[in-house]
Amino acid sequence: MKKFSWRQAALVAAVVPMLALSACSSTGGKPAETGNAGGGGQAASTPRIKVALITHAPSGDTFWDIVRKGAEEAAAKDNVDLQYLNDPEAGRQAQLVQQAIDQKVDGIAVTLATPDALKDVLKKASDAGIPIVSLNAGENVSVALGAFTHFGSNEKLAGEAVGTKLAAEGFTHPVCVIQAQGHVGLEARCAGVKEEVPGTEILYVNGQDMTAVQSTATAKLQASKDVDVVIGLGAPITVTLIKSAADAGSAAKVASFDLNAELAQDIVDGKVLFTVDQQPWLQGYMSVDALWQKKRGGFTIGGGQPVLTGPTIVDKSNAASVLAFAQQGIR
Questions:
Q1: Is the peptide bond prior to 311 cis by the omega test (within 30 degrees of 0)?
Q2: CA–CA separation, 205 vs 217, rounded Å?
Q3: pTM confidence score
Q4: Which of 95, 126, 227, 268 is the 20 to 30 Å CA partner of 294?
Q5: Tens digit of pLDDT for each residue in 40-65?
Q6: Residue pLDDT, tens place only, 188-222
Q7: What is the SS3 assignment for 25?
Q8: Which residues contact residue 297 at a Cβ distance below 8 angstroms, ignoring those fewer than 6 apart?
Q9: Common-topology check for domains 6-153+279-309 and 155-277
Q10: Domain-wise residue ranges, the chain
Q11: What is the full DSSP assignment across 125-172?
Q12: Domain 155-277: which CATH class?
């Protein structure tokens, strides 16, 4: 696989504008209308536009709260009417994209966890002249599905970073826990780990049922005493895996992808070895801001390449400083 240059990650620093406003808040799964109200500053003087951010997020996942918070702050700065919509079921996510097309939005930001389910409806968006950016998942198919840029982490590279770190610390039998089978980004993460640590096993769980996650992982750790580290692919999953290791009486350590305040605290406390952060706040912020920049001046960010927001290792050496940002909901 072609490795992406770390210079691409530097694009983030080059294109993120100074933040003039604090984040606006919204609740629930309903569309969020975000403008100058509540932002505490002056919104852009450009004409108000409507942007739909459509994700595959399940309800209650704190990762997506952070993505949304970044998007809302950009919307407040850019005078954007932001509609946030989400559904973890691929067919229903496609329906939400169609809904945005029918509403004649000025831009669509979309996650591509299940690209085959979205390709037809995204072609309709392109045919309707609606600019598209992708975020978080699907960077390898982003351009083919009509997006002019993608904001996220190279998931295979992130997995390799985890595998390299685990191998350096002497781990040989990881279990990589995938909470949504068929999700291209999650599969790529575990593939990256396995490339560096060939003894890696995959364990599939139902990420929408934390009780089931805990029991499935506990059973695996009880049955496989030689597992030396279990890897969660999202902060809520990882926090649950800590309980599974304790329930199983396992000596396995815990590592993670992604971040929230609770996980950052667990790293500080030594319950989790480290995590690889993809900086979701930036993904939300940059997706909305890029669509606004496209509308106001025809600007295209990224030069046809993904703009990397990660991977960034958070471990005992830097977790305390990251925790302060995580407690504000921006990491």
A1: yes
A2: 8
A3: 0.78
A4: 95
A5: 457 888 999 999 999 999 887 888 99
A6: 999 999 999 999 999 999 998 999 999 999 999 99
A7: coil
A8: none
A9: yes
A10: 6-153+279-309, 155-277
A11: HHHTT--EEEESS-TTTTTTTT-S-EEEE-HHHHHHHHHHHHHHTT--
A12: alpha beta
Q: Are strands 274-277 and 201-204 parallel, antiparallel or unpaired?
A: unpaired
Location of structure tokens 């606004």: 292
Cα angle for residues 116, 158, 13 (degrees, 5° grid):
95
Structure tokens at 119: 């390709």
Q: pLDDT tens-digit profile of 227-266?
A: 999 999 999 999 999 999 999 999 999 999 999 999 999 9
**141 contacts 164 by C-beta, under 8 angstroms:** no
Other CB atoms within a 10 A radius of the CB of residue 301 amount to 20
The sheet that has 80-86: what strands, in order across it? 80-86, 49-55, 107-111, 132-135, 150-153, 307-310
One-letter amino acid of 36:
N
Q: What DSSP letter does each residue of 205-221 carry, written as one string?
A: --TT-HHHHHHHHHHHH
Structure tokens at 160: 């390799």
Predicted local confidence at residue 41, as pLDDT = 58
- Tokens in use for 53? 């951010």
